[in-house]
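so my prof wants the structure for this chain in the tokens format not the other one, which i didnt know existed until like an hour ago. anyway here's the sequence
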Amino acid sequence: MTVDLEQLLARMSWEQKLLQLQIVWRRDAAERDELVRRGLGSTFWPPSAAETNRLQRIAVEETELGIPLLIALDVVHGQFTIFPTPLAQAASFDPSVAEDDARVSAAEARANGVNWTFSPMVDVTRDPRWGRVVEGCGEDVHLGSVFAAAKVRGYQGADPAEGVAACLKHFVAYGAAEAGRDYNTTDVSDRRLRETYLETFRAGIARGALTVMAAFNALNGHPMHAHRALLTGVLREEWGFDGVVVGDADGVAQLVDHGIAVDERAAIVLAIEAGVDVVMGGALLVDEEGVALLSRDELSEDRVDEAVRRVLSLKQRLGLFERPYVDAASAVTAPTAEHRALARRAAERSAVLLANDGALPLPRQGRILLAGPYAHSRDHLGAWVQHFAAPVRESLAEALAAELPGVEWDVQPGADFFSATDAELAAVAARAAEADLVVLAVGEPSTLSGEAASRADISLPEAQRRLIHAVADTGARIAVVLATGRPLVVEDWIERVDAVLCGWHGGVEAPAALAAVLSGRANPAGRVPMTFPRAVGQIPIHHDHERTGRPARTGGALLTGAALELAGPNNTDDHYTSKYLDLPLGPRFGFGHGLSYTTFALGPVAVSPAVLTRAGLVADGLEVSVTVRNTGDRDGDDVLMLFVTDEVASATQPVRRLRGFRRVPLRRGETADVSFRLTADDLSFWADGTTRRLEAGDFTLAVGDGTSETATRVHLREES
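here's what i got, hopefully its the right format
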């Protein structure tokens, strides 16, 4: 059913229009129901299909205009079937993982009445102290852009009426919060804003995202909920976005706290005039008595009509005028076998083998001691999980016992997340001395990451570090399983263990997936999506940092990529260079790092055409090819990453930029040809906040897999 939205808008009173521009939360059910009867436009999920239908019936059948509700929920990495956290999904370097998550989330959410999710979070961030890194894809713009598009594709599908509306958040530069402290201010140059923070949003909008959420932060002194130059100038006028912009929770009201509005009435005017269409929380735009908070003299009716038009259009795109109700009797409220299988696949593909001196995969026989809080804890779901999500069914101890029944398992607690007694540590050390191998399952509990979960110290809690050292003091071989919502500082123990498998917070099927990877039945191929620093003092640290006039070198050679990561301690002979006196060069584990149970060899990089001109690049692009061979004795995936370095430009460039990646499955002994296509945009850069340039000159093209690289250089000519 197609509704004439202009006719509907013409019938609406001022109060009815304002009601469409608010989503309420933290209101009791009776108050919410009354607001729906008055014509409220949006609310959060009740949460059940039956209750959602009841609210929709009030909106459609008991109001003058019969406008259905937008029913929203933060379905970040699962409704009932919880997938790995978004940061973990990014580690898979496989956008199908993110798309599967979004598609399953949309199916479960829509069947139960949710039609709008406040996801994906596409904030690029370089500071792991910030708790919300767990919700995004890490430090890289290209990786984040590809995953943003995949999530939008999964949530909305080919027809949004069959899915849920995606919401790109948090617009913009929320991930650049000073000191990694949530909600803190940001100060970013126009050039960096374009190169780093806007691009993931542009990619999501290009893929068709229907909504965008404004960020809590102020950017360069201007709070984002009132930033007209970006909310309207860039989003609407430059990019042509015609969807809905929603404020974050009480974000409009908090313009008063930012100090740019005298009261909440003024804050609402500022936000709506700047480009916010829907106000989340705060004062009611129309109170319980039907009185509007603001008059036509205070708020432009043309701007209100524009916002209402967008809200109604969103409802039409979602098919709500035609099908406002769901089949509550058949709504599934628990994971299906198919959804569990996809969640397990995602967790297996997200695991990153950070280090391995032969301790993994685990032997199929012998005596293995399993200790640490994650031996028994089922806290694998991660941040941003609702209370109705399916719980984890088994512990890692149970999953490993089922995976490797020939092993004599000795399971000891050793330490809780935050506490360990001397007696507990002594007991686990004594058992370690008798074991053939020790597996220590350690990490952050889910509560240590997510919103309002910034940490000044991003190392493991002290009790768990003591556990690692107590076992290492026995001389036992140790494999660490690390569950975390962020990159951690691991310097005080990393050299004392034989292997580290990072499983992140892997979701509802995490224990089974970890067991499969530890046993070798699944070969790890994840890569680090966000740098693991050696110390908090290195932050911000990321692979695509800009060049400096005095770069640190080893033996006179500038190191980048895998070479920098592997250079080791005391790896510079230049004193007056950009470095720390008390740290080796580079991070502990850089972006793209990841090991496998097999080995791979890369061939030379080939390019076509051999002669590259500006006109040819613009018209046809540049093909970059490489061969990769599995040289080991196991099947496995290799992740190939294409990096571009602009050797000389009119503005300082990053040492490298990721411009493509492929996850390639290879049987043992198999060889594959892998190609990437670069466009003119891939070799261009922002000279400032307004001008994007493609300049002639030399470009280094490097293809690496996290442990080795092969490269070539091409010259872009002005003329043929």
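also thought this was worth mentioning. The longest helix spans residues 95-111.
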